[in-house]
Design brief:
Elements lengths: L2 H11 L5 E4 L11 H4 L1 E4 L5 E5 L3 H12 L4 H14 L20 E6 L5 E7 L5 H11 L4 E3 H10 L10 H13 L14 E6 L5 E7 L20 E4 L3 E7 L1 H6 L2 H10 L4 H13 L11 E7 L4 E5 L5 E6 L2 E6 L1 E2 L4
Parallel strand pairs: 5-6, 12-15
Antiparallel strand pairs: 1-2, 3-7, 3-13, 4-5, 4-8, 7-8, 9-10, 10-11, 11-12, 13-14
Helix pairs in contact: 3-4, 4-5, 9-10
The chain binds aspartic acid.
Length: 334
């Protein structure tokens, strides 16, 4: 076996780079038993989870699943569910900002290590769009369900009907209606899709993406987030990518698939995210100064990348015992 192959195999098997770190168990000081507080070996590379924006509670939840030996698929689902359930998070799930008619409509998709995927679009009255997307993947012969069909399917699967329009979102919508001007605002609540990518202890990848879409969108509008290849793509041989920002621009360049394909050609996750952003901004007549797009990516070796058009995009990364929000580098330096 040559050295290059050995390093690759060893790193994929997680055996070459194991270091010793102290794991802060969830128990309080007084509850800690010696065996719980023990210093254990944690691979500094994996498991690993990254997500768009500052969502440390979500990445902590996902990492808990991974640390306990759970799959990357369970981790990303349970991770993004934290944001979906938070009524104060105005860009996903309950409390998401509505369309211009006052309806909160959710888009989500999920993809596993086998290349299976499921998605829901224009889903109303159900908080956990990501879990409905997973049921589409696992319990139907289809990839995507939309609107009433998705909602009826969710109820059949035991999801509860809920009012997703919180007082806070309703108030924001009523204030918006006074002028009814539709212009996406860079990095403000309407660009906060939660995309999450994880690699588990077996080295398997999965990803999830969930959003209420652009605030005050036209009724029926669907963006990139539930579209496999645009909002999210996972190839367990290579890596995974997920997008946030103005969905129309991501769809036009099939952004997440592009990032994964660039990694397949040998680019690092960082280089791949940068190249995919350049595809958007370098288009003739691109009006990129008016909108934001951001990508994050993870490859099979646990390397990560993030890049956006404008400043203030960020990625949250949970690896070993660090859960950190990191500023993304960006294209438009003004
Ligand atoms: N990508 C989402 C969409 O276009 C919105 C966002 O990320 O803010 O629906």
């Amino acid at each position: 076996m040559n050295r290059r192959k050995f390093i690759k195999d060893a790193s994929l098997a997680g055996i070459a780079v194991t270091s010793t770190v102290t794991v802060a168990a969830c128990a309080s000081e007084s509850e800690k038993k010696p065996e719980i507080a023990a210093t254990v070996n944690v691979d500094p590379v994996r498991p690993l989870v990254i997500a768009t924006w500052d969502v440390k509670k979500s990445t902590a939840k996902a990492w808990e699943v991974l640390y306990q030996g759970g799959s990357s698929l369970d981790a990303v689902e349970q991770g993004v569910m934290v944001e979906e359930a938070d009524p104060n998070s105005m860009s996903v799930g309950k409390g998401g900002l509505p369309d211009r008619d006052g309806n909160v409509t959710l888009d989500a998709c999920i993809m596993d290590k086998h290349g299976n995927c499921g998605a829901v679009v224009y889903l109303k009255n159900v908080t956990h769009a990501i879990s409905v997307a997973r049921k589409v993947m696992e319990d139907t012969p289809h990839v995507m369900l939309a609107g009433d069909g998705a909602e009826m399917f969710a109820y059949k699967k035991g999801f509860q009907k809920e009012n997703l329009l919180t007082e806070k979102s309703k108030k924001a919508w009523e204030e918006w209606k006074v002028e009814s001007k539709y212009k996406p605002i860079i990095n403000i609540e309407n660009h906060d899709t939660i995309g999450m990518l994880a690699i588990d202890k077996n080295g398997d990848l999965a990803g999830a993406c969930t959003t209420s879409g652009l605030a005050y969108k036209m009724a029926g509008r669907v963006g990139d987030s539930p579209i496999i290849g645009s909002g999210l793509f996972v190839d367990n041989e290579i890596g995974a990518a997920v997008a946030t920002g103005l969905g129309e621009e991501v769809v036009k360049t099939v952004g997440s698939f592009l990032v994964v394909e660039l990694m397949r050609q040998g680019k690092s996750p960082q280089e791949a995210c940068e190249e995919a952003i350049k595809r958007i901004v370098n288009k003739p007549n691109s009006n990129y100064k008016d909108f934001q797009v951001g990508y994050i990516a993870l490859n099979k070796n646990g390397e990560t990348g993030a890049y956006s058009i404008h400043e203030h995009f960020s990625v949250t990364k949970h690896q070993a015992n660090s859960n950190e929000n990191i500023k993304s580098s960006f294209f438009n330096k003004g």
